[in-house]
Amino acid sequence: MIAGARPHDMFLTRALEKILSDKEIKKSYHSQLKKACEVALGELKEDNSSNGNQPSSALPQPKKAGFVEADKYFLPFELACQSKCARIVNVALDCLQKLIAYGHLTGSTEDSTTPGKLLIDRIVETICGCFHGPQTDDGVQLQIIKALLTVVTSNTCEIHEGTVLQTVRTCYNIYLASKNLVNQTTAKATLTQMLNVIFSRMEAQAAQEAKERERSDSKSSKKEDAGIDVEEEKQENKNKEADEETQDAAEEDGKEETPLEIVQGVLEDMINQVAGEDTPTIENTDQTQPTVTGSPTETGTQPESSQQPPSSNVSDNHDNLSVAGSVEDGEMSQGVFSHILQKDAFLVFRSLCKLSMKPLADGPPDPKSHELRSKVLSLQLLLSILQNAGPVFKTNDMFINAIKQYLCVALSKNGVSSVPEVFELSLAIFLTLLSNFKQHLKMQIEVFFKEIFLYILETPSSSFEHKWMVIQALTRICADAQCVVDIYLNYDCDLGLANIFERLVNDLSKIAQGRQALALGATPIQEKSIRIKGLECLVSVLKCMVEWSKDLYVNPHSQSNLGQEKMPNTETDSDSGKGTMTSYGSVNSLNTNDGSQTLSTTPTDNPEQFESQKQQKEIMETGIEMFNKKPKRGLQYLQEQGMLGTSPDDVAEFFHSDERLDKTVIGDFLGENEKFNKEVMYSYVDQLDLLEMDFVSALRRFLEGFRLPGEAQKIDRLMEKFASRYCVCNSNTNLFASADTAYVLAYSIIMLTTDLHSPQVIHKMRKDQYIKMNRGINDSKDLPEEYLSQIYDEIAGNEIKMKVVGGVKPNKSSRDITSDKQRRLLYNVEMEQMASTAKVLMESVSHVQSNFTSATHFEHVRPMFKMAWTPFLAAFSVGLQDCDDSSIATLCLDGIRCAIRIACIFHIELERDAYVQALARFTLLTASSSLTDMKTKNIDTIKTLISVAHTDGNYLGKSWLEIARCISQLELAQLIGTGVKPRSNKVHHRERDMQNAGHPLEAFDPEVIAKGGLDSKRLANLQEQMGETSSQSVVVAVDRIFTGSVKLDGDAIVEFVKALCQVSMDELSNVNHPRMFSLTKIVEISYYNMGRIRLQWSRIWEVIGDHFNKVGCNPNEDIAFFAVDSLRQLSMKFIEKGEFANFRFQKDFLRPFEHIMKRNRSPTIRDMVVRCVAQMVNSQHANIRSGWKNIFGVFHMAASDHEEGIVELAFQTTGRIIFASSGVVKGSNAANFSFCEAGICEKHFASIIDSFQDAVKCLSEFACNAAFPDTSMEAIRLIRNCAKYVAEKPRMFKDHGGEDLNVPEDDRVWVRGWFPVLFELSCVINRCKLDVRTRGLTVMFEIMKTYGETFASHWWKDLFQIVFRIFDNMKLPEQQNEHFKSKKAEWMTTTCNHALYAIVDVFTQYYEILSPVLLTELYNQLHWCVKQDNEQLARSGTNCLENLVISNGSKFSPEVWHQTCSCMLDIFRSTIPSNLLLWRPDTAESASVVSSRDSELDADESQDTVSMDSSHDSRVLMRADSNHSVNSTISQDSRDHKIPRSKVSSEQKLFQGLLIKCVVQLELIQTIDDIVFFPATSRKEDAENLAAAQGGSLEDLQDSGQQREDQGMYQFLASDQLFLLVDCLLESHKFAKAFNSNHEQRNILWKAGFRGKAKPNLLKQETQSLACLLRILFRMYNDESRTDAWKDVENMLITICRESLEYYLSLQSDSHREAWGSLMILLITRLLKLADDRFKVHAAAYYQLMCEVIMFDLKLEMRSTLRKFFGRTGQVCHISSS
Fold first, then answer.
1. Residue 263: pLDDT band by 50, 70, 90 thresholds?
2. Which residues lie closer than 8 Å to 646 by C-beta, 6 or more apart?
3. Residue 655 to residue 1070: CA distance in whole angstroms
4. What CA–CA distance (Å, rounded) separates 951 from 347?
5. Contact 836, 416 (CB under 8 A)
6. Residues 802-814: tens digit of each pLDDT
């Protein structure tokens, strides 16, 4: 080479020389070429010589402004390219490629031959012209490819629009036409690279423009080079380096490159440029295909109809193309593209779309045919473009519209192709669209899913291969969380669109269950593989939902509920939410451009709004379904739900707008003759816009919305309205004379359509017949013939059809398909129908703008799951049930686990429980089937269940029960695996064992299983299978559930514990094999969780404590023993933690001990409970606070036991506590109280104070245990000590509020100290035997007397309520039980007397305090005692009243005296036995008794009558210790005479009461006498009077009597009070006198059996009341201090004395008169003691009566007294001398 020659000169020179040296150049037709070459060489030499001084360079020089002589140099190469010699063409193309590659040929100048065109366009045209179809030389083809690739990729020359299309088209044609496989491969690779460059340049330019815009906006200088983008720079450098290498190689070899080198060069270029970019996922299969044979057709070489031969004006052609495009599409307006590069890319993309739409030849597809290869290549290139799409392509409206109008329509055709490769490519393109463009293609995606993919899955006629490819694609869709949620949100929640997510899940579920319409002849392996794929998809969907909502999930193992007392937990969590359950990114997922967005905190998609839309949609779908069956019901439903208006216009609009309505039903509805239907039809037609439409088009428009009904009248109505509407809309048309014409014509067109297109019509109507048929319809004239002819032609060519709507369900009649050929035929028919439907729908939605919502909110998962959980569950359940394949089982378990996670996160309980139950069922642990069916999948299910429990424990709620059951049964399975027999406990219920043997527990016994017919080998296999359940991983996992319970939240742990307790109860209730596995675990988790905050622990213990209550009462002693021992250990640990004041946790914790003690009657267990509690007291007394209450509660129950050991131990421990507390450990006892030294417990008594009442109650119970009298006495002594402690330390009670915070501080010592002590003593008194109750009574009153001075007055009031309880035994109803009577008698004679007197003693001691608050109550109580039908009580009551007044009368105020006297008066009046005078026998039954007793009566009644109070012989004795009983009041006589029992009992009761009243009257008279005059005073006076009468002197006795009287209460009583008492006595006296005088009544009573052998009388009452009355009046008469009352007294005395004497004189019976003897002596003696003046007054009043008295036969003392009276009268009246 010439030194200093430029590189391009070198290339040019070498190339021209080579052309000239070729032998073909000499041929005549190459003369022009030869000449051009020579001219060019000459010029080159001249140029070189003129530039010879230039410095040489081995490197290519950068171009200057371009070649000025480009034409001159290019001409020879242009001619060479037109040469028919392949060698020459090769050389020319090679040289051109290198010149362009190294930037020496830019072609940027104008083409001299064609103004307005650039040289580069001519160069490209020349290069493309070298290809003449399949016959073109292979080497030339490669050079063309290489040159065109260089043109497109070069940075120095630019081509646009038509030229770009031409380069792409030529490579495309070479690929199709070339027979050489290498050339095909190279052409295809080149095409890919060209498209990559075209589209990446467009993106780079846009990015550069954006950067520059940013720079200008920010106005800040950057260091970056503003002209070149970094990417471009790198690309350019790479190109330069490659070019330099090529040049060096050329210089070294000087040889022409071989085709192989060309291919390698092209491929290297391509790799350099495309390195790092994604390759298409669908691999091309061309490399394996043989080269094309046969000559290519014209369509093969020029696949695009718009292409012209290379010689034509390509640029103009492509301008036309783009203009045509803009007119045709209506989308491209001027200025849409911001840069020419965008237009280039658009044209290429549109061309490829159109190429892919070309139909294939009829018949089976030939893989070598140009049409198929063209279609496959165009789809592959489109896929490549879409996969590498940049931001401009994804966002520019032009490209989006191109995708909608061209690509989607193309896909709707190719997506139903029977050629697998085409179908697969279509799927891949669809996936890419879904990934990158879904926000623009909402409506198109619906059509793809609804009309193509899901249809193929559902139809039985589609091939397995097609189904398989669809499900492969769905696998990728389902693995993309964003995509899955977006599909649900945009389709299932859109009122007008199909439920794609729901349908997808249902189809997948059917496939996964093996229920899908499988292709005929599919092999079992294919069936299984597609089933696995279906499961994979379902699991992917669930994983996406889990992934989507993962922010809601709280892993229990990432937190602890234990606070500072956290349990040590060194375990690592293999699945803590970071593992398989959450990181679900799949390599097969779509990786959508917005799929990786983080969830926004302020989502734009409102979940409530979408959920509401979904509900509305469901209502709408229900309504439409109803409408399609019964139109009126459907409309009514929608109107009721507010989804549809009620007016005809609303309904008509609904018919127009909703395509889901059945068109036939709409037609029938509109044609009905009812008023509403007609109104709807009118409105429906009126809503059609028929303006300026020709008649046939208008009719088409009318009939596309519904199917015409079959009935002529209906059609008639519809056509009539249509004709009217058409004429209204087109009133300016003069064609029709009236609407009648339109009506008839419409009818005729419908008839014509039916005639021409119905297969049933054999002889079709001809045009002339049709014209003839329409004669005279236009107002008796004809319509123009050409018009009718036109209508005929249009109908013949295009049938009037309803509008195409999608969603046609596939034909399910797979059983009709009998052969593969038949299936293919049916499939092809279905595919054609599907394709046409899809194409029409795709075209109809290509201009629809729809809003695509990109989901961001996690809440969408809830409604998705609620809608789809059933098909999921069905698929997984069937999978686990039917298949033993491990891959299917694993998928099913994964799916169930994800479903549980979702249900848990969103707290959807029903669904969660269903899935957990399903999982539990497939473990076979709780199922009814035998364990012999256990397989690997069941073991895996167990592991999954354990894993769920571990990771989702916080959310499981009630589902914990299933898990706990399985874990419980798992332990049994582990026993089989290890060969250990479950321990059988057959101590109890032996006879029930035989009935209850069987599942579940017998099934776990290897021996039982063996007996069931398993041979030893199968048994060994089963044991091996079971052994897996004992594997380390399972054991550890189960253990982690329990140790991990500390991580559960407060609600979850409670649910977990509830479940465990329920399972434990089931375990323990099994008669044959009670087990304690769950019980042991409950104890374990109690240990683990004891450190929780107290609020949570309280809730846990509420459940566990209740469980221990039940278990502790289990009839099986081993179980109860274990429960009590566990309780003891837990309690010790819990009590160790201590407790602050006023908390009650210990109390709650220890409560089960009380419950067990109360309910379990087993001595062993009761003993165990007492020992446990005793141990607690011994070792933990320092920490016990509120627990003391339970401890005393347990001992309280132990105290009433009959087992000596239990009572002894309980009492010893109680004694220790009390002694230690009260600090009075004495004598030998002290040696036994090991833990009380130095008063340890005394320090803690503040904590025992809360339970002080319980302690006293407990001691009281010990005292009441009759079996151990020594313990009883000791217990009372301890109660006495408690009282002492209260007295010594009242401050502690005051300071310690305890539970009674509402009690005033001053009263606390009473309420919490004294009251319990005294109350319990009263209980002891009421419940115990005589010696113990006497001791209790003594201690109680001793405490009162000892410590009473510290008691407040209102305390006394409470205290006396307790004291008065002692008399409650007397209030019990009478029983005719001798034992009871004797006990009651004993009670009255001992305790009641004792208590009454003690009460009065206490009252006397503390009179000042008690009188104001308690006197009234005391009187009431005494009054009550006296009123009872109980003689002893009545006597004691009156006696105590007497003692009370005598002891305290001197302190009584006038008010109190008044109250006392009133009380006596009330008692008197209430005890007057009035019925004695009124009683009559009820019936004639007593007649026999009366007659029998009449015979016993003396006629003169002169014999002595028996006094009703005759037993009162010794008053002193009766007062001190009365043993008189009312039970003796029924006479022996009455029993002898056989009185009827019922009569006796009622009369006896009445008579008893009357008798007691008589006794009380007598007692009261005596009481008044004793109170006023002091006890025994009156008796002594009577004795003295008698002695005096018998011979003594009255004067001697006067002084001593006076002195005694002063000791009584007379001096403290006011006169009116004395008069009150006098009234009482007088009333009593008069009653007795009346009764004694009523002989008839007395006879009746006597005959009825009242009171013994003689007639009843009231002699003592009659005489004693009068005696007492006279004493009071005479005392007042002689009282100097009562002079004001003397007059009244005197009058009363005179009246009473006269009446008494008169009565005495009237007495018939000697015995009666004798009874009055002492009274008469008293009266006369008292009169004799009066002063003379007074005596005179009285003597005058009685003298006459006294004289009468002498007439009777009187005793000596009476006569002696009368003698004195008469003697004194003589003296006073001066009748005799003194």
1. low
2. 639
3. 66
4. 56
5. no
6. 666 655 555 554 4
